[in-house]
Amino acid sequence: MKICSLASGSKGNCLYLESGDTRVLIDVGLSLRETLFRLEAVGIDASGINAVLVTHEHIDHIRSAGSFSRKFNVPVFASHLVCAKSDKYFKKTMVNEFESGQALTFRDIQIDPLPVTHDSCDPVGFVIESREGRAASVTDFGIVTRLITEKLRSCRFINLESNHDVDMLMNGPYPWELKQRIKSRHGHISNEESLALLHELAHGGLEVLVMAHLSEVNNHPGHVERTTESFLRDQNICAPKIVIGDQYKASCLMVI
Ligand SMILES: [Zn+2]
Ligand SMILES: [Zn+2]
After folding, report:
1. How far is residue 129's CA from residue 117's CA, in Å, rounded to a whole number?
2. How remote is the CA of residue 13 from the centroid of ligand 1, in Å?
């Protein structure tokens, strides 16, 4: 399995995942030019990517999904409702619609689009399974459901949202309505909620963990890194490589 967090945060999200013989991008929220630049910088051949998976129609996830797909003649996978709302991105694009909650097979991987709650029309996370095992990416969700906890078990790799520190959010500069929206079941999960989920998910086979979609205003990457590390150390079940998803630069290409 190979993984690279190319971008993570409200200005654009893009995750590269190679599992078995299949290479996908989960969301393409940067400009096409910046996406290609970052792929090249970490040594990933963009023309070798087989598909783009879209979690939801917010611009920081969908911006260049269609243009990437058209440039390299590969399909976009997006939910039926997201496609219906995203005409302007998907004109003349090869789109494979899925139903949220129904797994599908593509090449040698299984793609399981996992419904989450968020302020968009039909948001999902993805669990990807191949002969190399399970990997998951879940960001942009307001509450941790039983389904999320069950589906994310026994993954070798997880890209998990850790959006905000609750105190920083509540004492920070955002208007009250926006604070409420972020904290709501249709918003984003906090550092504390993310760690509580990790408490359920920790297992000896978890090798890489990307803490993703950190708020630039209401969070500190150093704080998330330290608390996640010490939390997992205290649990003493697993010691994955912890990466903090960055808005402005790609992580290294991780091979597990
Ligand atoms: Zn987002
Ligand atoms: Zn979103």
Report:
1. 23
2. 7
Query: How far is ligand 2, taken at its centre, from the CA of residue 172, in Å?
Result: 20
Burial class (CB within 10 angstroms; exposed 0-12, middle 13-18, buried 19+) of 83: buried
CA 65 / ligand 2 centre spacing (Å): 15
pTM of the model: 0.97
186 Cα: distance to centroid of ligand 2 (angstroms): 9
Neighbours of ion ligand 2 (CB under 5 A): 58, 140
CA of 60 to the centre of ligand 1 (A): 5
Quick check: 210 and 243 in contact, CB under 8 A?
yes
What's the pLDDT tens digit per position in 201-243?
999 999 999 999 999 999 999 999 999 999 999 999 999 999 9
CA 119 to centroid of ligand 2, rounded, Å: 7
Query: How many angstroms separate the alpha carbon of residue 242 from the centre of ligand 2?
Result: 23
For the chain, the domains span: 2-251
pLDDT (0 to 100) of residue 177: 96
> Which CATH fold would you assign to the domain 2-251?
Metallo-beta-lactamase; Chain A (3.60.15)
Nearest 5°: CA angle at 129, between 192 and 60? 55
Average confidence score pLDDT of the chain: 97
Q: What are the backbone angles phi and psi of residue 51, rounded to the nearest 5°?
A: -165, 160
